[in-house]
Design goal:
The complex is a heterodimer of chains A (129) and B (401). Chain A is mainly beta and 129 residues long. Chain A contains no helices and nine strands. The two termini of chain A are 16 Å apart. The chains are: A mainly beta (129), B alpha/beta (401).
């Protein structure tokens, strides 16, 4: 029997706090949903495991920092580096990247992940669905 | 707000790796199957791939030339890494398709396979077909699609013929849902004709293939018997695009994205231009031609470009009896990678190519830019009939399935 009622959001215990490590992810099945839990710079995030591109299992992809290209004063490229202030989750189907902090695709405004309210209390992570 | 007592359970696969089961990687495709009722559609995937290099020593063993075969086997035995690359030009140090480890099914499908009654690749193909609700899948190799760039044309022909022998006896026939269009050793018209006559009656062979990365003019007179043979047999000829990071254009490019975006299209643009302007469509009007893995955006560009020039330079194309774009609408196109960033342009493209009657769904699985069948179902301007045609009915007609 389904525990999810679209018209009555409910706060569900989904993981122990220590299962969602800093800079890491923990994926859970909750009724018909698969939800990725992330913790970055101390903040929790929860997204449905469905990519806005073609529906891929985005939360099961590689976690990697944003790549930025560096330019000098003369606009010459000095190479690429990782920006450790922005963590990305990459859909393993096709490579679509999303900011873990916003759930947004960097270049496609209409691409965003479905986010769920998430909090933790007493060593337990809760998601409201 | 209520808090339920029901807890979630950890998902079995936390991160997809090269060892993740294909059925887990593609599990989300089931959402499309349910949403669109895909089990009620006849779906033919006209372009997918297996990894022939995983079985390379078995291919090398089938080389006809005894000296070349021995050379290849000695390479396999003695050179580190040559068990996957002997006699080929495959450069593993240039494999950027997986976007720096971000799209790992492109790098390898190294998952466990317990079935022993069929070759491992048969099981991998079945898993992908079942996950994407595909009824028939046309399976191609990967590095062998670049065989036209091999510097030694005799070696290239020997390798392709050895692969064809191995594939038709090992993979084809193991499952009636698996089909192929066999690559032709185009550098040797004699070997090409021999290949067609050898395999045309194999139930898994539904056409033949020109691997498009090669510097040949498809108008050369020695190819006419090949086109005649295919036309008489009712076998389609496909042109399968491929990558090239070292031609006159892409050698200036410093990013894989750039070279991939260009080279998968320019090779087919070249052959299409030669095909149309030399009136091959007039010479063999019943030969079915399919353009594979170049997407669609290039087609209206070529139609406009060639029509414009033909209006002014008819004497350069004296065999033509109609506009170049009319010949292009007589041909077929596979859908992947479908450019969908501008729906208005996409709709115009579909109209220009008469997509309802010429477009053939293709996934290109397991490559990084593959398209699931839901890609076609989600296009808002297509009618139900158009969706069914593109997903499978057009292919049913082209291949007599």
């Amino acid at each position: 029997m389904s525990t999810i009622h679209p018209d009555a959001p409910t706060r569900h215990p989904v993981a122990d706090s220590d299962q969602v490590t800093e800079g890491g992810r923990h994926i859970v099945d909750l009724d018909a949903f698969t939800i990725g839990l992330f913790r970055f710079k101390g903040t929790l995030y929860a997204y449905e495991n469905v990519c806005a591109h073609q529906g891929g299992p985005v939360c099961q992809g590689r976690l990697v920092h944003r790549v930025v290209e560096m330019l000098d004063e003369a606009q010459r490229s000095t190479g690429a580096v990782f920006d450790e202030d922005e963590l990305r989750i990459v859909c393993p189907w096709h490579g679509a990247e999303y900011s873990v902090a916003t759930g947004m695709h960097p270049t496609q405004p209409d691409f965003s992940l479905r986010a769920f309210p998430v909090d933790e209390e007493g060593g337990t992570v809760y998601v409201t669905v | 707000m209520p808090t339920t007592g029901a807890a979630a359970t950890p998902h079995a696969t936390q991160e997809i790796t090269t060892r993740t089961d294909t059925r887990e990687i593609l599990a989300n495709a089931h959402r499309d199957t349910v949403r669109y009722g895909l089990d009620d559609y006849y779906i033919v995937d006209v372009d997918s791939h297996h990894v022939e290099l995983d079985s390379w020593p078995d291919v090398i063993a089938r080389i006809e030339d005894p000296v070349l075969r021995d050379t290849g086997q000695q390479m396999v035995r003695n050179w580190p890494g040559a068990e996957r690359t002997a006699l080929t030009t495959f450069a593993s140090g240039m494999t950027h398709q997986d976007v720096g480890g971000r799209v790992l099914h492109q790098a390898a499908l190294a998952e466990p396979v317990d079935e022993t009654d069929v070759h491992r690749d048969v099981t991998l193909v079945r898993r992908a077909m079942d996950a994407m609700s595909i009824d028939i899948q046309v399976v191609f190799p990967q590095p062998m699609l670049e065989i036209g760039l091999h510097p030694n044309k005799q070696v290239a022909a020997q390798l392709l013929m050895a692969y064809n022998s191995w594939f038709t006896e090992t993979i084809l026939g193991a499952d009636p849902r698996i089909k192929t269009m066999l690559g032709l050793p185009f550098d040797s018209p004699e070997a090409t004709l021999r290949t067609i006559r050898m395999y045309a009656d194999h139930p898994g062979v539904i056409g033949f293939l020109m691997t498009s990365q090669r510097s040949v003019g498809v108008y050369r007179n020695e190819y006419m018997p090949i086109y005649r043979e295919l036309e008489e047999r009712g076998m389609p000829l496909g042109f399968h695009a491929g990558p090239n990071q070292n031609d006159s254009m892409t050698s200036t490019m410093n990013r894989f994205l750039s070279a991939h975006a260009m080279s998968f299209v320019t090779c087919n643009m070249t052959h299409m231009t030669n095909w149309v302007i030399n009136g091959i469509g007039e010479r063999f009007p019943n030969l079915k031609v399919i353009w594979i893995e170049s997407g669609l955006a290039w087609v209206p560009f070529m139609m406009q470009r060639l029509d414009h020039e033909y209006q002014l330079r008819q004497s350069d194309a004296p065999l033509l009896k109609k506009m170049p774009s009319d010949y292009m609408r007589d041909m077929y196109y596979t859908s992947q990678p479908l450019e969908v960033t501008d729906l208005g342009l996409l709709e115009s493209t579909f109209r220009a190519v008469d997509a309802e009657n010429t477009l053939l769904y293709s996934s290109d699985w397991p490559h990084w830019d593959f398209d699931v069948p839901g890609r076609i179902m989600s296009i808002p301007f297509l009618t139900e009939k158009a969706k069914r045609n593109i997903l499978g009915e057009n292919a049913r007609g082209v291949f007599n399935l």
